[in-house]
Task: structure prediction
Amino acid sequence: MTTTESGNIPVWDPVVRIFHWTLALSFLVAWITEDELMTPHVWAGYLITALITIRIVWGFIGTPHARFRDFVYSPAVIRSYIRKMLSRSEPRYLGHNPAGGVMVTLLILSLLITVISGIALYGNTDLAGPMAGIFQAERSADILEEIHEFFANFALILAMLHVAGVVWSSRMHGENLVKAMLTGFKREQQP
Result:
């Protein structure tokens, strides 16, 4: 990795940064439009589907900090990190810390279930989209709607916890993680 004159190093590549901010905006659009404006809701869902697909692929072939192997930790490491976090003694990570890694994984899974159930629901109720006509029973629509709403709400809760974690970690380590996700650079060393 190349260190700049200011001691910053590249951590978040453009794919990760564009994915992150586009996903946040797309989820916001989907959330706001949910039952009122189906066309933007559906297109936001399709965009989220494409983004999640790209991110999963990038998790295997991307830059070092984008890869799953960099931020998917064992349960023991996660528990240890959370204990240290609660005692305000957690170590700093250049990439995702263990709690952040859990959050990324849960968000990806939750959004994946949300979009799959949404596409299936759209195919059921509107007979449109790639799953049009596959699930046609009324009972299927009820089940799909429950799954879709549950995981969309779960993703919203996770997003709020993610923001809280970013604020916490930024304060604990004296760095602006929002800026890092915009520029791609983080400080190499702890101050």
Summary: The mean pLDDT is 91. The helical segments are 14-33, 38-61, 68-71, 75-86, 98-125, 138-173, 177-183.
